[in-house]
């Protein structure tokens, strides 16, 4: 890819070893975790933690793109939080964009079909993106190791690979390490849950041409400060592949839907 190098780390457990369900211990990474050493300029996952330490002293909230800031109760990604993104890999990637552009490191684990070109178009700084597409039975161990060393970790939904208790321990590790854990799909105990409701594509108004933009409504729900549902209409993708507030949202502020616009979404 022009201007960027993505680090991809393969993970595999030696034949004959066990490691599924709640028996997986995030504190005991397997042999696959050692391959995190292939991160540029880093010898071990502990070394990644040292590299990221500077970012951890700059603030407790990592930035997000302006079109998404109003959806989060902290106006960004609060360190130590767990956020579940339902049904939209593009939204998951968009949440990484501003932070990686600002110097933070991110990892993606257990999302084998991640579109790296799409990530770059959405604004993700792919030079600071580490990929572990197929961790297999080492899902919990690899996720824990990434949480130890990076600012943001995006993970596939734990599904059958780990149980609810292990998922909650990983959220606890994110809190302890000051990292942000994002999941593509449900995650037990997530503080914020984001869902995309597609509305319309544009670009074929004359009956021909190219699809240019997709308008979606993103709904945020959750616990605590996020208990009150919030919706925002955004273009995902927008002009040039990035994210932008939708023109039809008639925002009161930051792209948030006005009551009249919310009614249109419900009816339409």
Instruction: Give the fraction of residues assigned to helices.
Output: 25-40%
Q: Outline, from the CA principal axes? A: globular
CATH superfamily of the largest domain: P-loop containing nucleotide triphosphate hydrolases
Instruction: Give start-end ranges of low-pLDDT stretches.
Output: 12-24, 40-57, 250-268
Going by CATH, the architecture of the largest domain would be 3-Layer(aba) Sandwich
Query: What distance lies between the first and last C-alpha atoms, to the nearest angstrom?
Result: 39 Å
Number of domains: 2
Tell me the CATH topology of the largest domain. Answer: Rossmann fold
Radius of gyration over all CA atoms, rounded: 19 Å
**The level-1 CATH class of the largest domain:** Alpha Beta
Tally of alpha and pi helices: 7
The oligomerization state is single chain
User: Number of DSSP strands?
Assistant: 12
Q: Report mean pLDDT, rounded to a whole number.
A: 76
| Helix/sheet category | alpha/beta
Biggest sheet, spatial arrangement of strands: 1-6-5-7-8-4-9-10-11-12
Largest sheet: 10 strands, mixed
Order of helices and strands: EHEHEEHEHEHEHEEEEEH
Beta-strand share of residues: 15-25%
List keywords for this structure.
two-stranded antiparallel sheet, 268 residues, 22% strand, alpha/beta, ten-stranded mixed beta sheet, Rossmann fold, 12 strands
């Amino acid at each position: 890819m022009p201007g960027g190098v993505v680090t991809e780390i393969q993970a595999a457990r030696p034949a004959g070893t066990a490691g599924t369900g709640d028996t997986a211990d995030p504190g005991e990474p397997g042999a696959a975790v050692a391959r995190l050493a292939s991160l540029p300029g880093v010898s071990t996952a502990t070394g990644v933690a040292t590299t990221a330490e500077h970012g951890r002293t700059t603030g407790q909230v990592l930035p997000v793109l302006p079109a998404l800031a109003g959806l989060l109760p902290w106006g960004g990604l609060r360190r130590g939080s767990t956020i579940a993104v339902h049904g939209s890999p593009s939204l998951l990637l968009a949440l990484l964009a501003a932070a990686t552009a600002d110097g933070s490191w991110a990892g993606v684990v257990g999302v084998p079909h991640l579109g790296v070109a799409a990530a770059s178009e959405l604004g993700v700084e792919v030079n600071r993106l580490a990929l572990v597409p197929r961790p297999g039975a080492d899902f919990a161990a690899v996720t824990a190791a990434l949480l130890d060393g990076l600012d943001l970790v995006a993970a596939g939904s734990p599904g059958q690979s780990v149980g609810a208790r292990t998922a909650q321990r990983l959220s606890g590790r994110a809190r302890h390490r000051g990292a942000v854990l994002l999941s593509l799909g449900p995650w037990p105990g997530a503080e914020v849950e984001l869902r995309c409701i597609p509305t319309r594509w544009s670009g074929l108004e004359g009956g021909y041409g190219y699809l240019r933009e997709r308008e979606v409504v993103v709904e945020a729900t959750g616990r605590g400060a996020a208990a009150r549902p919030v919706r925002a209409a955004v273009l995902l993708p927008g002009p040039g592949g990035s994210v932008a507030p939708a023109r039809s949202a008639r925002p009161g502020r930051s792209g948030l839907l006005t009551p009249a616009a919310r009614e249109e979404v419900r009816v339409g």
